[in-house]
Each structure stands twice: as C-alpha cells, then as structure tokens.
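Researcher: Can you fold this with NAI in place?
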Amino acid sequence: MRAAVIGSGAWGTTFASLLAQAGTPTTIWARRREVAEEINAGTNERYVPGHRLPSTVRATTSRSQAVYGAQLVAVALPSQEARSVLGSLGGTLGEAAVAVSLMKGVELGTGLRMSELLTQVLGLPPGRVAVVSGPNLADEIAAGQPTGTVVAAQDEAVARLVASSCATATFRPYTNTDVLGVELCGAVKNVIALAVGAATGHGMGDNSRATIISRGLVEITRLGLALGARPETFAGLAGVGDLVATCSSPLSRNQAFGRRLGEGMSVDQAAAASRGVAEGARSARAVLDLALAQGVEMPITAGVVAVVEGTATVAEVTDVLLARPRKAEGVHAPPHE
Ligand SMILES: NC(=O)C1=CN([C@@H]2O[C@H](COP(=O)(O)OP(=O)(O)OC[C@H]3O[C@@H](n4cnc5c(N)ncnc54)[C@H](O)[C@@H]3O)[C@@H](O)[C@H]2O)C=CC1
Ligand SMILES: O=C(CO)COP(=O)(O)O
C-alpha cells in the first residue's frame, strides 16, 4: 500500500505522518518547492512546528508523481481551492484507488460537499470516495495526543480500509456510512466556531459560548436531516465531538478568526493574522445557500455570513438573535404563537 496526500499544510502533513506511522509510505504534494525540500529533510516547521516527520513521508511538487501508484489519495487543501488544484488529476488515479477528503468546507457557488467535488473532479464513482472528520486539531495529533475520528464511506469496506491505513496507537478511527452527515458536521462546525470566537472577542462569556454551541448543533442537525443525514451522526465524534473541540480550543483557527472579528478587526485583517485557512469564513455563505434552498432556518450561520460579508456588526447580529420569537427547544419547533 502507498498513499498520497495533496496539500502540505497542518492537516495534510499531520495526516501523512499518521499514514506513515500506520505502515503506509506516503508522498505529499506541496505547492512550494522549499516546503517539499524541507519535508524531505524531515520537518515542516511552518505548519507542524517542533515535530520530526517519519522517514517514510516524502514530498514532491509534482501532482502526478505524488499520486502515481497510490491506492489512497487524501486531499487536505482549503475547500475553495480544491477544484483548481485537483483539475489536472482528473481520470489519472489507479483503477482501485480511493480518494479521501480531509477537508471541512462546502464549495461556494455549487454547494458541493468535498466528497462530491472529489467524485466530480477526479472522475471517480462515489463509492470510491471517503471522508475523515472528527475532533482532530492537527497540533495535538502531531504531538501524539490521543483522539478519535470518523472515517465515512458509502461502502463500509472502503471505510474500514481507510481506517486501517491511518489507525495508530493514539489515533482511533470509527467507521460510518453516513458520508453526508459526517461531512456536513465538519463544514458547519467551523461556522459555529467562528460565531463562538466572535462572541468571545466581543466580550461574551461561557454561557453565551455554550448557548451558541447548543443552538449551533440544532442548526447542523436541522440542515443535515433536511439533506438526508442520519440523526445519530450528530451525536458522534464528527458532530458533538468536533463541535466541542473546535469551539473550546484556543488552537482553532476558525474560533481565532471569529475572535478577531469580535475584537473589531476587518475580515482582511483577520485573514492576514490567521495561522492557516479558516474554512468557516468562506463556507458560511455556501452553507447558508444550502439551507435557504431547503427552507431550513440557520440564524447563527446567517449572522456569521452577515458579519463576514460586512452587512452587520457582531453587536447587531447578537441583538437580532436575541430578539427572535421564542420557541420550544426541538430541532423543528415552530415559534410560540
Ligand atoms: N488543521 C487542522 O487541525 C485540521 C484541518 N482540517 C481541514 O483540512 C483542510 C486543510 O486544512 P489545513 O491543512 O489545516 O490548512 P493549512 O492552511 O494549514 O494548509 C493549507 C495548504 O494548502 C495549500 N494551499 C493553499 N492555497 C492553495 C492553492 N491555491 N493552491 C494550492 N495549494 C494551496 C497551502 O500551501 C497549504 O499547504 C481544511 O479544509 C481544514 O478545515 C481538518 C481537520 C483538522
Ligand atoms: O477541524 C479542526 C479540528 O477538528 C480544526 O479546526 P480549525 O480549522 O478551526 O483550526
């Protein structure tokens, strides 16, 4: 077994290390030559500072060379860049190769989840595309801290294959066949983490944070159910697990991005200060468009879109959310009369 990882950022490099630790030699595609050379010398200080990479992790700046002969091709790019980066690989993967999305976003304009995008751009049947999503802050995993994750694929056998290729003594994958649900959880929790950060930056405390997390989970669940996800997925590692990790960890880039907005920075300033991609900032609009098309209400997500697009301040969004008609707690509860 040989694997390729497209993307040499925090998660791509860390996931490549997991694959290598699990016994699968892995080649990373890096956009920049100096990053590829550094990985070949055993480190990636910008994205995985302070860690040595296994010797069976290699890197190249040639996409076709990275995927040549790979039975597993994992993709860890910013979601909005995936289409353009992967375009040249369409139809080049081996007969039995499996593509794995490590990304947590929704494509703007098309509303495609990343597994759908991989299917389309790489020319693969949906059954040969898997996703990995869960409470997986790259810095902690690179440091060898234990965590669980979810590997989802339509075909349980494909999910098991991917799970066995990345399982280590500290990285414990569970399998799931609810690809849609697992993927939506990952994309929407980034939007909710951004909202939590914005509230914190604006001076709100733990009660506000917990309220946004809980009502955020309702939004994720509402959209997921409307699109056909399975309810139990939301209570699992990819749902509650990742929502809690991202909304409570100071390591989260999405939360930090939101906090900077809450403190008064512009979107451009917050992006410039970010340690890496903050998917929630760009996927929020795509998620909201999906919700609008389904007639699903997502008021926190709508608030994030308004702040990111500059049509409302954090203070104005807070007022709007608090002034909404009161209702019962349920996912589908109508407003009180
Ligand atoms: N970092 C983390 O803890 C985790 C990240 N993810 C997800 O994985 C995906 C990738 O995230 P990270 O690796 O953390 O991002 P990152 O910001 O650390 O790295 C992104 C990588 O993509 C490359 N890139 C950016 N724009 C590009 C372009 N136009 N063309 C080619 N390459 C480009 C960068 O050079 C870099 O190598 C995101 O969807 C993220 O939500 C998922 C789980 C954990
Ligand atoms: O997806 C993640 C943790 O599971 C990483 O979150 P951030 O992109 O907000 O850092």
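Model: Folded with NAI in place. The mean pLDDT is 97.
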